[in-house]
């Protein structure tokens, strides 16, 4: 019996510089950046004062005042992205068997923005050790335990199947979609609403990355502060957003005449077991994740047309990742365009992996690979083709997208067009 | 505590508070010229240590200070250089 | 990669940290005797809060059990998870350094991460300024911290993961671990741990409006009792060593507690749809996955919310599958309080011990309401051969998970 194949039939995006996948793709292909001086609070006390903020009006986007009240910003993003994905899929959710539809939402830091605000209130600005419950918002539990994000999406979709939040730091967005694909493949669900969300632009997040100098101090030039693979890079730019997908089993999608946007052909995750924040230069564990993901997709390195990089713009990440891609793709790494959209939309922690899957799906559809913005001065140790500054028309059938995060998580996913034959020469 | 000199004793105290100590290292031994890495302190521990020194002594270390100063002696010198140029508040 | 969807995944090691016992021997000894670990909160003065009881772990000396370098960068929950993992490996007779590094993974459940650490850093931020926030804050509080630290400490480079589905998460993590083993990883450490008994965590828990406000430890958490009026939160959980059965036998594992034979998960329908809550479906899916009939199940470890409406839903689900008083039901978490993501992992570990010793642990202090028609194992343990157990867990907001663990003939 051939294994069940999993395809993406709906895409929804909330990103800095563009709500909705159309605006998002336009931003990327024009090579514009959505990074700016932080406007959500006064960033002047902080080392890094730059972020990629989304201009997000929950009410305008159709959430009710009650929903807005009970949901952290990240949950609001996820529901809006999920709605776009569901509409895009053309699925009639009403008629489905609810237990066969599940939800997997990734998030690295949950309701951290809501928790930061609420803590400030109940502690009277940090004065109280014994914080005062009588000032707490009624829905504080939804912030405490971020499984509420998956619950909100499940309610929006009427899903009653397996439902969870995946929280593996900055690979959450890849791992959540990978997890959902596995549930369909093994037969635990037929449809999964899967993606990731994070809204971490709050004082506590900015302060915690300041403390380890992981974010950029390039406050004078917010628009060009995110510089993956550039020799002048000096840390990542915090971002926010969400991308959510409708995943289906290929046969069922074809039978209903769905517009199949891409296939999730392979996925794997490995741990570096090295350090909570540090990376070893050799990229070995990420290379192993890439190798296993390609194995699962039944393809070799030569089949990869484009690498959607993690490319956070920290000194060590970009070298680590370059090493991992060379290690896993060999000579083909030098022939393959590889770019980081974090140069434009920042690093939205757990969400970015899903946002990068969305970029990968769009690259496949348009045969265009997005650029790495702000890449003017190459780092001699990062010597691959990072598609500097301008998007490139490029026949793109198969994309490798990778992620790397605190905790040592390294993940990789292979996406292919579901045009024509299956990867690895299998017949449909 | 601007105006105060930064000593090995102060560094050891701050290391212990902020990063603990490795079981196979004797911080009371002759450690002045031992690499922090050999003492069991990696970049994260040094960032925490640097942050604590900055707060306690009211100075701002350069981003590179902690990567350049690889031993207690070097770090103590860097901190004291800052202290001598920082007017007592 | 050899994907074997029929590979048998077994529990070979237990690491337990619970309010009524540290280490599986101490915990099991207390639990089978009905000794609870609930009391007035000692870690902070709870007098200003409407709920004052919790299941706290006493006598956990992390400094003696973990490297000194780990202490400043870890929340209590991570220390508990690291030590429990050490115990689980020891129990399983596994020395991780002797295992191929890509053959080991770790999948944990979390619900609120290192919340006490987070409270300290939020306090630093808002009372003193951003420069006072710790270099460890970027990971010490987040949900992935336990999986990350466990993998680092033990050199585990295989697939790892973290799930958050409130109290259901402990079972969802184990299901994900089983999935990874079936995809070819030999060993996965899995389970859940939580420890958010700090003022800021307490305020978050209070917002669930499900906490018992009783001040009597023996009357505070009474699942399925007519006097049920909410639960007592606790800290702790369990980490389990899961392995491919063939691999465990090949290396001569000292014991095989049982097989993770079935799993099912559902989410409750939106309020107002009139549809049945999802728990029964989760049970049926788990039984079907295990290839067992209801009659094959010897005991149900119930979720036991102790909120009357939720108790009714659970009793009905059990009744529909097993018939009225059709199966022994127990809620040993009445002795520990509800441990969030640690609860179901601990129940699973307890089920393993019940199978080993032929003892169903009690549900102390509870007199089940007749309306539920449950065969509740009350104040005294029950001697019974346990060949298969069903563990149920529900998470706030509508999460339902069920796992069937089955004895494994050697």
UniProtKB/TrEMBL annotation, chain A:
Cellular component terms per the entry's GO annotation: cytosol
Q: Which Gene Ontology MF annotations are present?
A: 3-oxoacyl-[acyl-carrier-protein] synthase activity
Q: Which InterPro entries match?
A: Beta-ketoacyl_synthase (IPR000794), Ketoacyl_synth_AS (IPR018201), Ketoacyl_synth_C (IPR014031), Ketoacyl_synth_N (IPR014030), PKS_Beta-ketoAc_synthase_dom (IPR020841), Thiolase-like (IPR016039)
Q: Name one GO biological process term.
A: fatty acid elongation
CDD domains tied to this protein: KAS_I_II
Positions in coiled-coil regions: none
Q: Which residues form the Ketosynthase family 3 (KS3) domain?
A: 3-417
Name the PROSITE patterns for this protein. Answer: KS3_1 (PS00606), KS3_2 (PS52004)
State the EC number(s).
2.3.1.-
Keywords annotated in UniProt:
Acyltransferase, Transferase
What does the similarity note say? Belongs to the thiolase-like superfamily. Beta-ketoacyl-ACP synthases family.
Q: What is this protein called?
A: Polyketide beta-ketoacyl synthase 1
Which species is listed as the source? Actinacidiphila bryophytorum
From TrEMBL, chain B:
**Has UniProt tagged this entry with the keyword Phosphoprotein?**
yes
Q: Which domain of life is it from?
A: Bacteria
Instruction: Please indicate if the UniProt record lists Phosphoprotein as a keyword.
Output: yes
Family matches, as Pfam families: PP-binding
Q: What InterPro entries does the record tag this protein with?
A: ACP-like_sf, PP-bd_ACP, Ppantetheine_attach_site
Residues in domain Carrier?
5-83
Signal peptide residues are none
Q: What keywords does the record list, in alphabetical order?
A: Phosphopantetheine, Phosphoprotein
Q: What is this protein called?
A: Monensin polyketide synthase acyl carrier protein
Q: Which organism is it from?
A: Actinacidiphila bryophytorum
Upper lineage? Bacteria, Bacillati, Actinomycetota, Actinomycetes, Kitasatosporales
From TrEMBL, chain C:
Task: Enumerate the UniProt keywords alphabetically.
Answer: Acyltransferase, Transferase
Q: Which CDD domains match?
A: CLF
Q: Where is the Ketosynthase family 3 (KS3) domain?
A: 6-407
Superkingdom field: Bacteria
**In its UniProt entry, what is this protein called?**
Actinorhodin polyketide beta-ketoacyl synthase 2
**EC number(s) in its UniProt entry?**
2.3.1.-
Q: What class of enzyme is it?
A: transferase
Species of origin reads Actinacidiphila bryophytorum
> InterPro entries given for it?
Beta-ketoacyl_synthase (IPR000794), Ketoacyl_synth_C (IPR014031), Ketoacyl_synth_N (IPR014030), PKS_Beta-ketoAc_synthase_dom (IPR020841), Thiolase-like (IPR016039)
Q: Provide the GO MF annotations for this entry.
A: 3-oxoacyl-[acyl-carrier-protein] synthase activity
Which processes are annotated in GO (biological process)?
Answer: fatty acid biosynthetic process
Q: What family does this chain come from, according to its entry?
A: Belongs to the thiolase-like superfamily. Beta-ketoacyl-ACP synthases family.
């Amino acid at each position: 019996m051939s294994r069940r194949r999993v395809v993406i039939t709906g895409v929804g995006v909330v990103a800095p510089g563009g709500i909705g996948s159309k605006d998002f793709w336009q931003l990327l292909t024009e090579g514009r950046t959505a990074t700016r001086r932080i406007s959500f609070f006064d960033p002047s006390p902080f080392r890094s004062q730059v972020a990629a903020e989304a201009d997000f009006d929950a009410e305008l986007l159709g959430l009710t005042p009650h929903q807005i009240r009970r949901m952290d910003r990240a949950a609001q993003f996820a529901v809006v992205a999920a709605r776009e994905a569901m509409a895009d899929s053309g699925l009639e959710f009403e008629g489905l068997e609810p237990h066969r539809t599940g939800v997997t939402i990734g998030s690295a830091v949950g309701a951290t923005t809501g928790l930061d605000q609420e803590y400030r209130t109940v502690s009277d600005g940090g004065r109280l050790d014994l914080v005062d419950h009588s000032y707490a918002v009624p829905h504080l539990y939804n912030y405490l335990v971020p499984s509420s994000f998956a619950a909100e999406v499940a309610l929006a979709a009427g899903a009653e199947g397996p439902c969870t939040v995946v929280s593996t730091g900055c690979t959450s967005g890849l791992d959540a979609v990978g997890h959902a694909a596995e549930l369909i493949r093994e037969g635990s669900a037929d449809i999964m609403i899967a993606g990731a969300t994070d809204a971490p632009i709050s004082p506590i997040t900015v302060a915690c990355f300041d403390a380890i100098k992981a974010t950029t101090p390039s406050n004078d030039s917010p628009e060009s502060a995110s510089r993956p693979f550039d020799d002048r890079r000096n840390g990542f730019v915090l971002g926010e957003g969400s991308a959510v997908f409708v995943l289906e089993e290929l046969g069922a999608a074809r039978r209903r005449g769905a517009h199949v946007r891409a296939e999730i052909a392979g996925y794997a995750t490995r741990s570096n077991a090295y350090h909570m924040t540090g990376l070893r230069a050799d990229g070995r564990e990420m290379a192993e994740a890439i190798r296993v993901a390609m194995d699962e997709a039944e393809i070799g390195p030569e089949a990869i047309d484009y690498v959607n990089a993690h490319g956070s713009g920290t000194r060590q990440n970009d070298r680590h990742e370059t090493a991992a891609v060379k290690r896993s793709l060999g000579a083909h790494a030098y022939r393959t365009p590889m770019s980081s959209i974090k140069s434009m939309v920042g690093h939205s922690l757990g969400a970015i992996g899903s946002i990068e899957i969305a970029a990968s799906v769009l690259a496949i559809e348009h045969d265009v690979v997005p650029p790495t913005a702000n890449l003017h001065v190459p780092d001699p140790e990062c010597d691959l083709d990072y598609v500097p500054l301008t998007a490139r028309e490029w026949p793109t059938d198969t994309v490798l997208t990778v992620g790397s995060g605190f905790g040592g998580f390294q993940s990789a996913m292979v996406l292919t067009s579901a045009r024509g034959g299956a990867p690895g020469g299998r017949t449909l | 505590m601007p105006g105060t000199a930064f000593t090995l004793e102060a560094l050891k105290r701050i290391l212990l508070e902020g990063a603990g100590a490795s079981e196979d290292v004797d911080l009371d031994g002759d450690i002045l010229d031992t690499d922090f890495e050999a003492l069991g302190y990696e970049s994260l521990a040094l960032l925490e240590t640097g942050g604590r020194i900055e707060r306690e002594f009211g100075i701002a270390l350069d981003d590179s200070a902690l990567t350049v100063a690889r031993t207690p002696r070097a770090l103590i010198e860097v901190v004291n250089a800052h202290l001598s140029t920082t007017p007592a508040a | 990669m050899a994907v074997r969807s029929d590979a048998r995944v077994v529990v070979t090691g237990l690491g337990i940290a619970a309010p009524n016992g540290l280490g599986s021997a101490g915990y099991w000894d207390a639990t089978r005797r009905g000794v609870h670990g609930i009391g007035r909160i000692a870690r902070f003065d709870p007098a200003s809060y409407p709920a004052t009881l919790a299941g706290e772990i006493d006598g956990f000396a992390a400094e003696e059990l973990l490297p000194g370098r780990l202490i400043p960068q870890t929340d209590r929950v991570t220390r508990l998870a690291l030590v429990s993992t050490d115990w689980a490996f020891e129990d399983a007779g596994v020395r991780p350094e002797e295992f191929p590094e890509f053959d080991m993974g770790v999948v944990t459940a979390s619900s609120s991460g290192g919340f006490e650490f987070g409270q300290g850093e939020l306090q630093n931020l808002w009372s003193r300024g951003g420069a006072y926030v710790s270099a460890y804050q970027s990971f010490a509080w987040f949900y992935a911290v336990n999986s990350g630290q466990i993998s680092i400490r033990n050199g585990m480079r295989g697939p790892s993961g973290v799930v958050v589905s409130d109290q259901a998460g402990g079972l969802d993590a184990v299901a994900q671990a089983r999935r990874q083993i079936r995809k070819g990883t030999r060993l996965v450490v899995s389970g859940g741990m939580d420890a958010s008994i700090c003022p800021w965590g307490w305020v978050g828990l209070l917002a669930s409006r499900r906490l018992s406000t009783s001040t009597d430890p023996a009357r505070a958490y009474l699942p399925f009792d007519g006097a049920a009026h909410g639960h007592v939160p606790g800290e702790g959980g369990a980490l389990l060593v899961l392995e491919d059965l063939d691999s465990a036998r090949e290396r001569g594992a000292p014991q095989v507690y049982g097989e993770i034979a079935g799993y099912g998960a559902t989410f409750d329908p939106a309020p107002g749809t009139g549809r049945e809550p999802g728990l029964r479906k989760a049970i049926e899916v788990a039984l079907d996955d295990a290839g067992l009939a209801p009659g094959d199940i010897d005991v149900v470890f119930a979720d036991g919310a102790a909120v009357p409406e939720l108790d009714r839903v659970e009793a009905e689900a059990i009744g529909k599958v097993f018939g009225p008083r059709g199966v022994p039901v127990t809620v040993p978490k009445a002795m520990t309080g509800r441990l969030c993501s640690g609860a179901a992992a601990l129940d699973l570990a307890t089920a393993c011990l019940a199978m080993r010793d032929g003892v169903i642990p009690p549900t102390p202090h509870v007199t089940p309401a007749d309306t539920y028609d449950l065969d509740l194992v009350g104040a005294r343990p029950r001697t019974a051969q346990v060949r298969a157990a069903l563990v149920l867990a529900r998470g706030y907001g509508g999460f339902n998970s069920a796992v069937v663990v089955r004895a494994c003939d050697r």
